[in-house]
Amino acid sequence: MPARSMEVARVLATAGVAGQVRELTESTRTAVEAAEALGCDVGAIANSLVFLSDDQPVLVLTSGRHKVDTEALAARWGRGKLRRATPEQVRQATGQAIGGVAPVGHPQVLPAVVDAALTEYPQLWAAAGTPRTVFPTTAGELLRLTGGLLLPVGP
Length: 155
Fold this sequence. Notes:
The protein has 155 residues and is α/β, with parallel strands linked by helices. The chain is 28% helix and 25% strand. The chain contains five helices and eight strands, in the order αβαββαβαβββαβ. The chain is globular.
């Protein structure tokens, strides 16, 4: 298993998460690819997206079935304007590359939001540090792991 995924697995184990990191042969770089590889609904993929708010990185865990409405989310969250982080900024904030960003295992804890739409699925899948590693989870577990807020991220 890749080193980044081993770090994610360590954090999950320390937090008492039962789900194990799985390494797949297929790419899980996008929500559609992940859903196809796992045989689940694209909405059950928890994408970990990094944005900047007031030049600080923040984490948005969103259902793979829709895009983040940055203006609406910033207003709901009470934060400044949100803008997508560049690939370099994502790697600096998380130690992971776009397409494989996990909700945990970062050098520092990031302020986080968990998409309310993720509560509609009894089991979710999240990236585990690389574009080919994932782990099963739930919306409640993501809230606990990230210390995030449950908010709608769409319009």
